[in-house]
Structure formats: structure tokens, C-alpha cells
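Chapter summary example: a protein plus flavin-adenine dinucleotide.
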Amino acid sequence: MSAAPDVAVVGAGVAGLAAAHRLARAGCSVRVLESSDAVGGRMRTLRADGCLIDTGAEMLPSARGYPATWRLIRELGLDGTWGAVPRVRGALAIWHAGRSRPNAGRPLGLLTGAGLSPRARMDLLRLLTALGRAGLDPDRPELSPLGTATVADLVRAYHPQVRDRLIRPLAAGFFGWDAERSAAAPFAAHLAASGSTGDWHTYRDGMDTLARALADRLDVSTGHTVTAVTAGQDGVRLASPQGTVTARAAVLAVPAPVAAELYADAPPAERDYLRACGYAPMLRLSLVLDRPVAPRGVRRGFATLVPADEDALVNVITVDHNKHPGRAPVGRGLLSVVASPRGTAELLDAPDARVVDRLLARAERFVPGLSARVQTVHVHRFRYGLPEATPRALEARAAFARRPSAPVEYAGDWVALRPCSEGAVSSAALAADRVLDHLSAAPAASGRAFARPTSSEEP
Ligand SMILES: Cc1cc2nc3c(=O)[nH]c(=O)nc-3n(C[C@H](O)[C@H](O)[C@H](O)COP(=O)(O)OP(=O)(O)OC[C@H]3O[C@@H](n4cnc5c(N)ncnc54)[C@H](O)[C@@H]3O)c2cc1C
């Protein structure tokens, strides 16, 4: 077992690993404690059946939308070889009138249609222009001019096709959100920041590439489940069946409901926010195929959005072998089916066989002959899939953001209610800097001081 570190980080998802990396760069000794047997969390990639199976996150937009992520990619040299973080071709299509309509969410779609009528396309342009001008800050959703309006409120004044074929399926399929309940501010800020779907990228070697590269440089203990966190005069104690760890400070880089359970004595403003941060569950099937088939209308494209009036249980079908040819062996295929919020509610706790039966039967309509092609199926369940920004969470966030630095800090996509890996990565820099402030205010007996790392690319 390692000596007591300056900082213990709970969770080896991208948030925890990025926070640990920044703290280590500042000169802290850091130990990362991860309950599962591998790093990556919701950005994990399985290596099975000759395939690279992304279990959670699938893609990342360009540096304009994900600046913190791309800063890390460059710092670690992950884009050093050609094609290591390639663009995804034909990223998004909409299922309409019996086939996938490509070019959704990109300028070309305004010409080709992308499943929307000319009036709906004009309205989409109007919506995107309004969002672009609204000055939305993805890291401070509680200050948004949209206030506590929901996603449904945001799109009410726009063409029904924009609402029902694009925005609602996007919020549901990519975030697991119910448009009537979830706050528009973080969704709109994410949409405005992410730009065109023509700029989506993936990692050639699996979506866990960033997590693995960070973990290689850090002291990470997998199979180490933290069960309780307490803060006292002499630092933080992290209890676990694998042994108690003490540290001068800790970062809880786990979903908010897990952090609330672990740190029962959190100060009131933190507790309020932790409890207000709900999560939408997500459910997805990965299908390893004996041949590379795809939804009707897709040739080289990646994801097809399925509106709720087309299917109540299936929300997105992704063609992983088109995302990057290395995802499946030559001549074979890899495809995933993401359940809708209704499908997830119905099937999250059902046995695998039932999940497969229900979703595969539905997916058959979009990919005729699919069942006959399936060799192996992997079911991925995320009880804490994506943070759901309810108006109540937005209200509680202001007090949370104003809290003084403390021995226990937080990182994760929920910190700014930004339901994506960029939210997780950007929260990590904030958490690390707050820990450094805390350690500087209460120097160790050794008198060691830590300085915030700087990079020429940082704002
Ligand atoms: C189905 C799905 C699709 C997605 N698609 C995209 C996408 O295409 N693009 C995108 O940018 N984002 C996407 N996301 C969101 C993205 O995956 C997450 O925002 C991001 O990975 C969250 O990282 P994190 O470090 O905050 O949390 P996590 O990845 O959840 O990491 C938390 C870690 O803590 C560990 N842990 C939990 N409890 C304990 C404990 N008690 N002790 C020790 N360790 C513990 C967990 O095992 C986990 O490894 C998707 C998410 C899902 C679920």
C-alpha cells in the first residue's frame, strides 16, 4: 500500500483522472481509488469478440465545443499520429418515412433536408442563431438568460418537426432527458458550443483512450470501493473494505448521488446541490455482427435518431463499424441500440434476455435482417447515465458554486450540470485548483507549497 497521499481521488472516470493529473503536475502526491476493474467509467471501452466496444460515450465535438478535453489531448500527445482522433463521417441522421435521412445538425442538412421540411429547416436555423447569440456559458448554467425554462419550453415556439424529430430525440437519446422536466439552459449551451455534427470526432483506439493515457501516468488502484468519506482537522479519511486511506484532501469524482451517500456530513450548500442533482439512466445494447449491416438509408453514416412517434423503445441506432473501421474486424460489424427513456424505464432492471428480445425486435424494423446477423450481444446499463439538469438543480447550483474551498472537493459532469465528457474534464481543473487553494491555505507540517499548473493554451 502507498504512503498517505496529499490528495485521494475517488473515481477513475475522466473527471477523476484529469483532476489527479492536474494535481500531480502541481507537485502533489495523488492516489486514485476506483471501484471497478478498469478505468474510464462511463467512457470505458470493452475489448471483446475482436471489437472495440464503446460502452458509454461515443464521440467528442471539435476543440471549439470541447476546449478542456482537446487541451488534454494535445498535452498528452494523443493526437500526435495521423488519424488518432479522427472525424466521424456522416455523424447524424434522422429516421423519417422509412429510412435514415443524413446530414442532420450540419449546414449541408439545410440543403439536403435531413428529414425536415423547408419551413422546419428555416426554423432550425432560427433556433440555432438565437442560441448562438444568447451568450450561453456551459460552465455557469444557473446564470443563463433561459432561466429555469425546460427543453420543451425552449422549442415550443418552433416548427413541430424541429421539436419532435430533432430536439426531443436528441435530448432523450444523447442525455436520457425528459424534455418536459429538464432545464433548457445546459442543453442549449451544449448545443451552441458543440456546433455542427460534421465536426464530431472519436478516438481510433476506443473512447477510453484519454482515461488510459491519464491513468498510465498516475497511481491508480482499481477494485478499491470507497464506502464513506469523513473530513476532520487532520485531513480526510476514506473508508473501504480494501483498507482506509487518509489524505490531506480528497476529490469525489463520482456521480452526485454517490458523492451524497459517501460524504454524509457535507456542508449544507453542498448537500442541497448533491441531492438536487438527479441522473437519467441509460441502457444500450452492443451487437457484434457477422456482417456490417446498418439502418436503411445509411451507407457510411454513424448515428440514426429515432423520434418517439416512430418507436417508443428505441431512440438511437449507432453504426460503430462506420464510426471507425477499427471498431470491428474486417467483414464483420458492430452496431448499438440505445433505448429511449421509456424503454430504459421498462427494461433497466429486466434480465438481459428480455432486454435483448425487446430492443432487437424493435431494431429489426430499422435494420431489416438484423437478428440473423447477431453473433454476440453486450448489455450496458447506467443507473447514473447522465446528470439531469432540473430547474431545482439549477436553483441549488448558485450556492454550491459560491462555497469556500474545503478538504473535500468534487469533480464530474454534474458539477456544471453539463451532461457530457467535456463537463467532466472541465470540472476537473476547477476541482484541482480548489484543492490547491485549500492546501496552500493549510500548509502541511513539511511546509511544501503547490502552485496551479499553467499551460500556454489555458484561457
Ligand atoms: C450511454 C452514454 C453515452 C454517452 N455519450 C457521450 C458522448 O458521446 N460524448 C460525450 O462527451 N459524453 C457522453 N456521455 C457522457 C460521458 O460519458 C460522461 O459525462 C463522462 O464520462 C463522465 O465522467 P465522470 O468522470 O464525471 O464520471 P464516471 O465516468 O461515471 O466516473 C466515475 C467513476 O467512479 C467510480 N466509482 C463510483 N463509485 C465509486 C466508489 N464508491 N469508490 C470508488 N470508485 C467509484 C466509477 O466506477 C467510475 O469509474 C455518455 C454517457 C452515457 C452513459
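Key point: Residues 49 and 187 are 36 Å apart (CA to CA).
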